[in-house]
Amino acid sequence: MKRLRNNSSGFTLMEVVVATSLTAVVMSVLFMGLRIGANAVRRGEQKLTDRSRSVAGMEILEHQVSSAVPRMLSEVRDRVSVQFVDFRGSSTEARFVTATSWQADHTRPHYMATYRAVNRQEGGQQLVISETALTDAASMSAALVDDSRIRFSNDPASGTQEIAEPADRIDFYYLQPALLDKPAQWVSEWVPEKQKELPHGLRLQWTRNGHMETATFLLPQYRDPEQR
Questions:
Q1: Domain ranges of the chain
Q2: Which residue has the higher pLDDT, 89 or 222?
Q3: Residue 50 reports pLDDT greater than 60
């Protein structure tokens, strides 16, 4: 009597365990690669968004600064009439009258634009724009010297806008035109009562990780035909 031979083949338990382990490893590697790729794409998109935001912000600044209104204002202080130019600047803030609203508001002829380096809770500083609508020379004078009229908050209704990316430090500089005894130079302060005109340029300097980036904007020097 012939003995039947079993020719059926199969996998041993060890082979199944090894195959399952290899499959898990391959799937983990593929998943990790997909996750790294997705993170890279997300970071790239964020960089593009930040870059677009920065470029748009610079366009806003350039348009608003180029629409600055050179004008001498007057105010009675201690019974004395004082004249001053409608531009105030320090190392952390610039404030001036402009004919352009960054909010595309056309309800007023002029606006008081305030650019300020605001300290962030996370550290560093953020450039923020605040805008106040003006109606006449009196409102111009008041908005130029009265800080209570300038509001900085995250509420869009407050009329503020963050510009460009945060930095470790943000500095403002103003181009002083050449005088008889001094060449043209960049200064860190523009006192309205000591000047008869706008600075010829506004420079913003961002310092990030020891590297500096600057943006320079030119201001108009014509006189407002409505100037008194």
A1: 51-218
A2: 89
A3: no
Question: Given its phi and psi angles, is residue 210 left (phi above 0), alpha (psi -120 to 50 degrees) or beta?
Answer: left
Q: Are 132 and 112 in contact (CB under 8 A)?
A: yes
Q: What is the mean pLDDT of residues 176-189?
A: 90
Cα–Cα dist 158/151, whole Å: 6
Q: Using CB atoms within 10 Å of the CB of residue 132, give its burial: 0 to 12 exposed, 13 to 18 middle, 19+ buried.
A: buried
Q: How far apart are the first and last CA of the chain?
A: 129
48: confidence class by pLDDT, cuts 50, 70, 90: very low
- Opening angle at CA 112, ends 110 and 116, nearest 5: 150
Rg for the chain, CA atoms, rounded:
31
pTM here is 0.72
For residues 80 and 48, which has the higher predicted lDDT (pLDDT)? 80
How many Cβ atoms sit within 10 Å of the Cβ of residue 137?
19
